[in-house]
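User: I'm putting together notes for a lab meeting next week and I want to include a structural view of one of the chains we've been expressing. I don't have a solved structure, so I'd like a prediction I can at least talk through. The sequence is below, exactly as it appears in our construct file.
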Amino acid sequence: MDKCIFCQIIAGEIPSSKIYEDDKVLAFLDISQTTKGHTLVIPKKHVRNMLDMSEQVATDLFKRLPKLARAVKTATGAKGLNILNNNEEIAGQSVFHAHVHIIPRYSNQDEIGITFTEHEPDFEALGQLAQAIANEVTK
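Assistant: Thanks for the context. Below is the predicted structure for the 139-residue chain, given as structure tokens.
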């Protein structure tokens, strides 16, 4: 099986602009730079996405995120950040090696394709959905 592009970056076969590396995690600037400082944080162990991640790989990845996010925010002078994770193609995942995006935000004009629409909630439907999800969590 061919290595994915992120596994090639981990192996040093493809160059990257690294900002952090240890034995479990690598963080580097995304070549797309949606906004200045857009960073990817990846586990060194290849897993397709969050849905395939073990608790240990998740722990290794997510315990480093606050420090990395603070570093990106401070170094770039951003006013805030989005921390995003896409799982599967339908959700925008284009590289099938788990990764988290740290996307600095500088103004309301940043074009990153995320919008939130407020609407009146259907509390009965929310309760039913919450129960269905809770039932899956306890399986």
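A couple of points you could mention at the meeting. Strands lie at 18-21, 25-29, 39-43, 80-84, 100-105. The CA atoms of residues 47 and 97 lie 6 Å apart.

User: Perfect, that's what I needed.
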